[in-house]
Amino acid sequence: MALFGAGGHAKVVIDLVEKQQQLPIAFLADDDAKLWGQPFYGYPVIGGKSALLSQWRDHPAFTCLVTVGSNPIRARLAAWLQSEGIAVAAACAHPSAQVARGVVIDQGTVLMALTAINADSVIGRHVIVNTGASVDHDCVIGDAVHLAPGVRLCGGVTVGECTLIGVGAVVLPNIRIGSNVTVGAGATVIENVPDGATVVGTPARRVLP
Predict the structure, then answer these.
(1) For this structure, is 137 an active site residue?
(2) 50 FRET partner, CA 20 to 30 A, in 21, 83, 99, 132?
(3) pTM of the predicted model, to two decimals?
């Protein structure tokens, strides 16, 4: 397995993958040239996109996981992998993560320590379910979403792609949150949120745009 992104999020993913003891990490790639040739948590950073592409051409069986915390950047890198035909790694879960019956989790998604995904929820591609976050029954989470540490989604919540739900936020049952939304840390969302909005507070109120 290769990881694309050598920053803080990658550190947590490396720990998760090592604890899984399933797919070994071969190397990392990153577009920051200052990192090239340097060790990162015990693994080499071989270069940027061109280096990753060269490795894939020599070893087409390997898979790649995008380990960048920014939703828009993660989505762009995921689209680049797809355009080049590089296979995305299967979803990875920390051994302490709890996944219930009927849950569907797509490729490239990571479930961090102490997360819980409850019955019949659907999680898209390249999603981060961060430490201690919980997703209750029948939720639908779009691609490249980040559920920050301690987030609580009640049952039947829908979250659109590239949305960030901030640390400790709570979303009440059956709420629909659009794409490219930011929900501030500690917010309590009690009504639907349209695409592109930023909401903060308890109850959450719209501040942008």
Answers:
(1) yes
(2) 21
(3) 0.96
